[in-house]
Automatic annotation (TrEMBL):
SUPFAM superfamilies: Periplasmic binding protein-like II (SSF53850)
Region (Disordered): 29-56
InterPro entries (UniProt xref): Bact_solute-bind_prot3 (IPR051455), SBP_3_CS (IPR018313), Solute-binding_3/MltF_N (IPR001638)
Taxonomic lineage from the root: Bacteria, Bacillati, Actinomycetota, Actinomycetes, Propionibacteriales
UniProt keyword list: Signal, Transport
Keyword Signal: yes
GO biological process: amino acid transport
Biased composition (Polar residues): 39-56
Signal peptide: 1-25
Family: Belongs to the bacterial solute-binding protein 3 family.
Protein name: Glutamine ABC transporter, periplasmic glutamine-binding protein
Source species, domain of life: Bacteria
């Protein structure tokens, strides 16, 4: 088989793998009405700065004691968000940028890593009911979520950007370049709303998810796709004619944190110590270079941690 046909086959396999995915990647159940939060004697979560987490600690014993299953760190991940958390069609193993952090924390704890593929909609509930210990699934840190879970320090500063055809990349100068063009994003998302605000001359086109946008893009029905740069990196990895222009300005900030049960403070502190080690020993940079840089084509540094809770 020729090299080009091998590439086409690999990309086709990945596209099948990612079918019906997008930000959420795995099936998303209908949202259920939130139950009233039980009264608590603990102090309310302070959220002047949602990216602030708990100061790091190397107390492994305390962290291990907070695991729900002895000897195992159970982590909820995506199974098909390409480059972030996906099942490799070649060997079936879960791989990606998010998976690297789960591996590092389990190794530091000295326990077995148990990866569970979950939907984005289930992240919070599975942490609250103790089914999983941690979420590593491109989860944006915000004040509303701090009311239900605890977050690590930010491990990646995702941003909303735009993907275009490779031959249009050099001429892309920001939202103004989208005037008169069709831009796709999943229906009823902040990405679609944001592109409407910043590029009023563009024609927004909704799809069920980002894979749907990629199909429209490949058919020539839309000119560009917008979303988190991490998601766009996965789309670019599937289409050799797509690129995320490296010179573009971000449209919004989406800081990602690892999420934990709100009571697992010692586990959060230990995770923060691992993240700090990854920032300083080059492990973070290696993960970025492997999974995201080839498609985002920009150098970036790990985000500086913020503590104070």
């Amino acid at each position: 088989m020729s090299r080009s046909r091998t590439l086409a086959a690999t990309l086709a396999a990945a596209a099948v793998l990612l079918a019906a995915c997008g930000y959420d990647a795995t099936p998303v159940p209908k949202a259920q009405p939130a139950e009233p939060k039980a009264a608590s004697s603990s102090e309310p979560v302070q959220c002047d700065n949602p990216t602030q987490s708990y100061a790091p600690s190397n107390d492994r014993a305390k962290a291990v004691a907070e695991l729900k299953n002895k000897g195992r760190l159970v982590v909820g991940v995506s199974g098909d968000t390409f480059q972030m958390g996906f099942s490799d069609p070649v060997d079936g193993e879960l791989k990606g940028f998010d998976i690297e952090f789960a591996k590092a924390i389990a190794k530091a704890l000295g326990v077995t890593l148990d990866l569970r593929v979950i939907s984005a909609a289930d992240r919070t509930e599975l942490l609250k009911n103790g089914t999983i210990d941690m979420v590593a699934r491109n989860m944006t840190v915000n004040c509303e979520r701090w009311e239900q879970v605890a977050f690590s320090s930010v491990y990646y500063n995702a941003t909303q950007k735009v993907l275009v055809r490779r031959d249009q990349a050099a001429s892309y100068q920001g939202p103004e370049s989208l005037s008169g063009k069709k831009v796709c994003a999943p229906t009823a998302t902040t990405s679609l709303a944001r592109i409407t605000e910043v590029a009023p001359g563009a024609e927004p086109v909704g799809a069920s998810n980002h894979t749907g946008c990629l199909i429209l893009f490949q058919k020539g029905d839309v000119d560009a796709i917008t979303g988190d740069d991490t998601v766009l990196a996965g789309l670019a990895a599937q289409d050799p004619y797509a690129v995320v222009p490296p010179q573009q300005t971000k449209l919004s900030d989406e800081p990602y944190g690892l999420a934990f049960n709100e009571d697992a403070v010692d586990l959060v502190r230990f995770a923060n110590s691992v993240l700090q080690q990854m920032r300083t020993d080059g492990e973070w940079q290696d993960a970025y270079a492997t999974w995201l840089k080839p498609y985002l084509k920009v150098d970036t540094a790990p985000p500086a941690p913020a503590y104070g809770r």
